[in-house]
TrEMBL record:
Keywords: Cell membrane, Membrane, Olfaction, Receptor, Sensory transduction, Transducer, Transmembrane, Transmembrane helix. The lineage of its organism: Eukaryota, Metazoa, Ecdysozoa, Arthropoda, Hexapoda. GO terms for molecular function: odorant binding; olfactory receptor activity. One of its GO terms (biological process) is signal transduction. The chain crosses the membrane at residues 42-61, 67-88, 128-146, 188-209, 268-288, 300-320, 372-397. Belongs to the insect chemoreceptor superfamily. Heteromeric odorant receptor channel (TC 1.A.69) family. This is Odorant receptor. Its main location: membrane. GO terms for cellular component: plasma membrane.
Amino acid sequence: MSLNRRRIESAENRYKINQILLSSLNLWPFQQSKYTKIIRTFHFGIMTSFIFFQLTSFVTYEVTLDVIIMVLSYAIPSFIYVIQYYSFSFKPYTVKRIWKDIHNSWDLMKNGAERKIMRQYSIAGEQITILLSLSIITSCVFYAIFEAMPIILDMIFPLNETRPREIHALTEYFIDERTYFCPILCHWLIGLMLGAYVVAVTCTLHLVYMEHICGLLKVANYRIEHSLDECALCDSTHGKNRAIQNITAAVDIHRKAVKRCVFVLDNFNPYFFVILIIGVSSLSLNLFRLLKTILALDKMVQLVSSILFVTMHFVIMYLANYYGQKITDHHNELFNTTYNVQWYTAPIKIQKLLLFVMQSTTKSYFLNIGKLVIISIEGFAQLISLSISYFTVIYSLL
């Protein structure tokens, strides 16, 4: 088996979980069948009907601020499910390009040390995929158990009368909700869990790709740091050429990493911007719902769902901004690494090349959404501050 083949198989094993997750939603771009459109239409149907039967509450309920907040605190996050699924369904080329970039990057590694660096970052990506997916799935199962608790208790500890059954969210299916409670509950839970699963699958691929880009930037730093190792005696022509090749290779992989950041933003920026607006609005509404539930202390399911919703908002917002900050830090590290190399002892030609690298990396690189929000820890703080501001506005209206 060739070395390149072994590297490709290694990359496939590192990201096998992401492939399985994408395939489970029929979003894997390399295996499109004649049933793909049917399955995706079915998924869209579940998620859109999930939103529709929440918004129909405005038809039968008296529209008050409490009702609006109650409905929108569930409905607004649901739009994220549809947007995320849409962005992957109708941009298969982008997903395919991401996957090919990940695989091709392993062929750029020159030695075992560089492959070890990439392996560490791929393991980190695998770990965040498992943790985030399990967290979201566990939260959904936990919520489903609470929603179905009356049915479960009636089966285990039956009473003379059936326990009260209701979905702890405002919905309107235009049928008798007591008679058809089980089908309604099934539709509600399937819609919620499918949407949450979509978020887990799509978000983890983005996070894995950002982790992968960080690995490339780390390899670029490694190449700069060791660019002069093999040519301590740079007086020889061979030594100079080796140093120049090492530095050029570092610049090349650094450029590829930045281009991949630009590629993701160019293709997903409109979706990210809409999701950002929805996320801030949703967090504000769910913070208010959480506060109201805590003050009332009458519905445990409402309390559990509010805590889960708010927690997931915080976790996903933090992870997105954390990885944005991580890319910025890795990019900026190249300047420090180049500065710390003993460039002043190298021949003039190599000094000029290293000074060019320092000049190119003097300005910090930031990922931004809609040219308004910088993806960073500071950006995370700004989003939370903005959400709390809207929350206080809503609170002041009541």
